[in-house]
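[recover] target loaded
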């Protein structure tokens, strides 16, 4: 009897391994982002409500994740974008969103990200750092899939501008919760997230949420896995230094405009 159970277990594991090696698919995700923005107190209530509503719509995006057993390609589905219509009071908010294209090869342990930073294209090439996930016991269903909970805690730095025009950098502890399914045994997930025993279908860290709305396994026409090639080649550390400098420059310009009396002019940039 013990030998029979052992043989069944070996066959089950072998089947799962073979299945994961042959699997490929396309997962669709919808993203939302919470923006904590302090508006000028001189703005009227109607204008503030309009700005908040337009920001909420601007940060609702749709992305596609193409994946096979070893590789994944993450990019925004820009075909659903629509021009932002002016509101009744004439206020229009245009957010520079994250239209990065991210390719990961978890077998080779490398990634390539094509990113636009304030109008300049970069090609970030570097090694993947294995995430430190903590596997939890909780489960829930997302669509037809049974999902398991995992968490990750990390320190991040945020650069902000104070009321006095000073630029501050603060460290913050962020806890990310992910839900993954063993029904799709690949280690991929949306954007930077990966490294769990199954496809990550949901991610939430309190400010940003990504929810998978559809998975198509083994599509008839196959999947596209084009590695980004355009942009100035840098590693992650160099890119972060450039991004930090550009962020400080932008905040200094905003503070200068404020000192010059242009309090109605501002811009918002997320992810580049």
């Amino acid at each position: 009897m013990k030998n029979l159970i052992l043989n069944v277990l070996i066959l089950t594991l072998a089947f799962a391994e073979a299945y994961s090696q042959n699997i490929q698919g396309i997962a669709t995700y919808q993203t939302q982002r919470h923006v904590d923005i302090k508006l000028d107190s001189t703005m009227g209530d109607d204008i503030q409500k309009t700005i908040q509503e337009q920001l909420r719509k601007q940060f609702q995006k749709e992305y596609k994740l193409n994946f096979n057993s070893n590789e994944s390609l993450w990019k925004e589905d820009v075909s659903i974008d629509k021009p932002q219509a002016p509101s009744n009071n004439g206020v229009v908010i245009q957010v520079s969103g994250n239209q990065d294209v991210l390719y990961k090869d978890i077998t080779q342990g490398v990634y390539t990200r094509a990113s636009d930073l304030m109008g300049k294209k970069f090609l970030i090439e570097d090694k993947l750092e294995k995430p430190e996930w903590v596997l939890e016991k909780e489960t829930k269903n997302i669509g037809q899939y049974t999902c398991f909970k995992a968490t990750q805690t990390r320190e991040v730095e945020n650069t902000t501008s104070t009321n006095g025009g000073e630029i501050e950098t603060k460290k913050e502890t962020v806890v990310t919760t992910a839900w993954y399914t063993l029904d799709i045994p690949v280690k991929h997930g949306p954007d930077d997230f990966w490294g769990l025993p199954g496809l990550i279908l949901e991610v939430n860290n309190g400010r940003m949420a990504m929810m998978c709305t559809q998975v198509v396994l083994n599509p008839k026409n196959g999947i596209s896995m084009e590695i980004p090639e355009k942009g100035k080649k840098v590693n992650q550390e160099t890119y972060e230094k450039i991004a930090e400098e550009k962020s400080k420059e932008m905040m200094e310009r905003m503070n200068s405009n404020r000192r010059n009396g242009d309090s109605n002019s501002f811009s918002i940039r997320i992810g580049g």
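[recover] notes: DSSP finds three helices and twelve strands in the chain.
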